[in-house]
Amino acid sequence: MSRIAMQAAVTMGQLQNKLDVIGNNMANVDTTGFKTRNAEFSSLLVQQINNLSAPENAQGRLTPDGIRVGAGARMSNTTLDLKAGALKETGRALDLALLKGNHFFQIAVTENGETETRYTRAGNFYLNPLGNDQVAIATADGFPLLGADGPVVLADNMEAISITSTGAIEVTRNGQTAVEGQLQVVEAVRPRLLEATGNNNFRLSEQSLQAFDPGEIIPVADEAEVQIKSGSLENSNVDVAKQMTDLVTTQRVYQLNARSISMNDQMMGLINQLR
């Protein structure tokens, strides 16, 4: 394969990955608390070909003299846009919206017999009966919401429940209201190290835990900084117009690379005819 075709083929494969990211963003435009992901590209290895030019040609240059031949581009990483989405009023006491963009709820997810802490912006929670006159505040999938003392578990005989702006869980029983728990909100200070697990959840990857302590990546948020709005849900922060623009632009770049492969084939055909 010629160098031109190789460069274009490599870049096209990476552009397809970007199209997948854009498609995922657009598919989740109505997902509660969804955060947009943006693809970032970088160049692959570049070979420096010395054209034996005169030394004086290097004067005033910002790049090395000679021919630089690249090997295409790759999608180096995807960044998480933590900008807060618009709020939607629901009136449900257990519909919670975090007003700070880099704050997350914690949930305990059990899969294959193992339980780990995951993080989410989706604040649509429910009361999940546990038996023995107890209920847990949990996600729609039944994963318990975590508070300062672990999963939030309450006695079942309640008349009303509400969550304050700082995450205090107020329960009314026999006409008396008391605080029976406290949500523990965390702050993502290194959002690049969060790994998406599906269902709008994130976790700390094994690689990030080898390099950092969890408290350096997503520490517990200062209680004075926590802002929770009960009775509301956060919409996704996907900008459909921008995603459509990125989609068209990426498709055009993909077509350009495909065209370069076609032109390369035509040029090689002409060369073969001259022999």
Automatic annotation (TrEMBL):
It holds the Pfam family Flg_bb_rod. Residues 230-274 form the Flagellar basal-body/hook protein C-terminal domain. GO terms for cellular component: bacterial-type flagellum basal body. The keyword Transcription does not apply. Coiled coil: none annotated. Residues 11-35 form the Flagellar basal body rod protein N-terminal domain. SUPFAM superfamilies: Flagellar hook protein flgE. InterPro entries: Flag_bb_rod_N, Flagellar_basal_body_rod_CS, Flagellar_FlgE/F/G, Flg_bb/hook_C_dom, FlgE/F/G-like, LlgE_F_G-like_D1. The keyword Kinase does not apply. Residues 99-171 form the Flagellar hook protein FlgE/F/G-like D1 domain. Belongs to the flagella basal body rod proteins family. NCBIfam families: FlgEFG_subfam (TIGR03506). This is Flagellar hook-basal body protein. It comes from Aquibacillus salsiterrae.
